[in-house]
Amino acid sequence: MCAKFNQVISRLIPEGSTKEALKGAYYSLYYNKKHFKENGFRVYRRLGHFEYDFDEGVRFSSHENMADELKRSLKGYLAKYSLKKGDVVIDGGAYIGEFTLYAAKAVGIAGKVIAFEPDEKMYKKLLANIELNALGNVVAINKGLWSSDGKLKFMGDSVKGYTFMMDSDAKDVVEVPVVSLDNELARMGIKKVDFIKADVEGAELEVIKGALDILKGQRVNLAIASYHMLDGKKTFDRIEDALRSIGYNVDTDHPGHLTTYAFKA
Asked: Number of folded domains in the chain?
């Protein structure tokens, strides 16, 4: 009822102070009470932007409402590792920045977040959200992560997400640059990585292959979305095997957004 009322407000009331006041009241009085009491954060509509206030003190804003995505996946990514001040974080498949923004605030000015997003439209929204929060500790890269440097075809759409593919006859295809994480970090002079989050639409194994130097040489913590289908099977089994083979302890959990976690003892 209230959600439909909010949709009616968005469609029928012209932009202006009245509409913003009604939206702000909707999020403060209804949305948070119904949806986010158990999720450790609240969302507000202020000054034309969405603002997120987490119980642990992290706060950031976005141009689009990313509350549902934060609710669905953020706890999963951080279920086995808590970001610390000064951490260097990789965000593979950053989308519009829901994890990037949280991580940048959590690691502070002494830390760094390197965010990879190959979809040009989503990349522009990511940049806009970084600018909105005046984040100086984020490097956003308009490339995909893969096992090597080059260009690959990307298939899909900006709503459901893109995936790398090899079928040249498929529709809705764009060609994007890809890099291995090892190569890109070497070019940037980055020698330390504390945490890797990846949601890369089926390219998980290729990302691991392209990060073997950093994974073997350091004790990196990982949280990789592993619900994607590859050859008719979810990718978590193969991700677990690949990471175990280089000395990592692994576990797959968080059924609502299946995630494979890994760390070195």
From this structure: 2
DSSP string, the chain: -HHHHHHHHHHHSPSSHHHHHHHHHHIIIIIIIIIITTTTEEEEEETTEEEEEETTS-EEEESS--HHHIIIIIHHHTSS----TT-EEEEES-TTSHHHHHHHHHH-TTSEEEEE---HHHHHHHHHHHHHTT-SSEEEE-SEEESSSEEEEEEEETTTEEEEE--TT-SSEEEEEEEEHHHHHHHHT-----EEEE--TT-HHHHHHTTHHHHHHS--EEEEE---EETTEETHHHHHHHHHTTT-EEEEE-GGG-EEEEE--
What tens digit of pLDDT does each residue of 91-131 get?
Answer: 999 999 999 999 999 999 999 999 999 999 999 999 999 99
Last residue of a domain, one of 70, 103, 130: 70
For residue 39, what pLDDT band results from cuts at 50, 70 and 90?
Answer: confident
User: What was the pLDDT predicted at 103?
Assistant: 98
* Helix or strand run (H / E) with residue 185: helix 181-188
In the listed set 70, 95, 118, which residue is the last one of a domain according to the structure? 70
Among residues 76, 125, 126, 124, the alpha carbon closest in space to that of 104 is found at 126
Query: Are both 113 and 44 inside the same structural domain?
Result: no
What is the rounded CA–CA span in Å between residue 62 and residue 112?
Answer: 19
> How high is the pLDDT of residue 1?
44
Distance, in Å, from the CA atom of 44 to the CA atom of 247, rounded to the nearest integer, reads 43
Range of the domain at 218: 72-263
Regarding whether 94 and 65 lie in a shared domain, the answer is: no
